[in-house]
Amino acid sequence: METGWIKRGGLKPGWDASTFDAGSLGAIDNGPSNFDHDQHQNQIQWSTTVGGWGFFIAAEDPNDNPSNLFKNGSIVGGGDDLTTEPGINTATGEWAGNWPDIVAAVTGGSGNFHWKASFGATDTTVGTGFGGQLWMQYLQGGNSGTLQIAASNGAGSLYGANIQPEGYGNGTYWHVAYQLGFAVTSAFTVLFEAGYQKTPGPSAWEAAAEADWTVGKGAVVALEYDYLSHNLINGYTNASNVLDLMFKRSFD
């Protein structure tokens, strides 16, 4: 299941997107960036609203955090020839320590402007990780502008750059991404996104374009092209070009 949870008052236990995350606008969920946390986790969340402010705190299962295809920065080579060692594949949750992830978030907005600030702390096998994210969005009609900025220390690099803890050594991991959306008609929307990712070692950038067609009630056909200069999640690999086609059907 994409999600599965129950809610009573402000208490919500279950499987859902991390309280740290903000989500995306397009039908194809890219969060809006390849570089952000964008993770579903088992969790117990408590929330409340005061006026136009929302407050959230959650304990999340670190065993649901993904692992990447290299471990402890175990990378050979250097410069543009940097590659992962062959045959390395780590298991989900391998980096989890003894304590749950603790995440807090505050949301707010006025008129067409909305924002979310979140902070996460995680216990990993390479130390305590922490990271923060600021997400801001302006909506007017079907048009939108979305800015996402996140940063973390090495052990919390999943928060800052969607890279395993200290995948490229100790230091600061961060990314910034921006997405523009245009409603061409009430049934046709296009989105453009660009992002930059930095680690203590290499960096990467991305660009994407998506078109969403509403072909019927609750039915959307989406096409997305995504360019990634280097896939730092899986080691310093070559540029990738991905074309996604998706049909999405929802029911009231």
Explain the overall architecture.
The chain has 252 residues and is mainly β. The chain has a single domain (9-249), classed as Beta Barrel (Porin), CATH 2.40.160.10. 2% of the residues lie in helices and 53% in strands. Strands 1-2-3-4-7-8-9-10-11-12-13-14-15 form a 13-stranded antiparallel sheet. Strands 5-6 form a two-stranded antiparallel ribbon. Strand 3 (40-50) and strand 4 (53-60) form a beta hairpin.
Short description:
By secondary structure, the chain is mainly beta.
Question: What is the secondary structure topology, with strand pairs?
Answer:
Elements: E1 4-5, E2 11-17, E3 40-50, E4 53-60, E5 75-76, E6 83-84, E7 101-110, E8 113-124, E9 127-140, E10 143-152, H1 157-161, E11 173-183, E12 188-198, E13 203-216, E14 219-228, E15 240-249
Antiparallel strand pairs: 1-2, 2-3, 3-4, 4-7, 5-6, 7-8, 8-9, 9-10, 10-11, 11-12, 12-13, 13-14, 14-15
Entry keywords:
252 residues, mainly beta, Porin, 13-stranded antiparallel sheet, two-stranded antiparallel ribbon, 1 helix, 15 strands, 2% helix, globular
The secondary-structure element order is EEEEEEEEEEHEEEEE
| Global geometry | globular
Radius of gyration from the alpha-carbon trace, in angstroms: 18 Å
Number of DSSP helical runs? 1
**What is the CA–CA distance across the termini?**
17 Å
- CATH class descriptor: Mainly Beta
Order of the strands making up the biggest sheet: 1-2-3-4-7-8-9-10-11-12-13-14-15
CATH T-level fold name: Porin
Instruction: Report helical residue fraction.
Output: under 10%
Structural class by sheet pairing and helices = mainly beta
Main beta-sheet strand count, sense and barrel state: 13 strands, antiparallel
Second CATH tier, the architecture: Beta Barrel
The name of the CATH superfamily reads Porin
